[in-house]
Amino acid sequence: MKTYTSTLSVSGTSVICSILGHKFRSTRKITNHFSEYQCRCCGKQMTEDPRGRLISLTPELRDINETLHMIFRRRQIHI
Ligand SMILES: [Zn+2]
What we know:
The protein has 79 residues and is α+β, with helices and mostly antiparallel strands. It is 33% helix and 28% strand. It has a domain at 24-78. It has two helices and six strands. 6% of the residues are buried.
């Protein structure tokens, strides 16, 4: 008996998401103005640019967000 595994993923995006759109939920608050989001369907991670638009969360942006998050938390403690 042959078994086939169908991968719904097409270059990181599931077929369902490409048809219906991603269903993003906030996974982490970076600052009061920046958050990280993840699609509940395909797991694609996004973040916000300075204009508030969603952009792909690249390793570089993840590092920037991590730094911003640390600065934001330190400022919160001192306020
Ligand atoms: Zn998706």
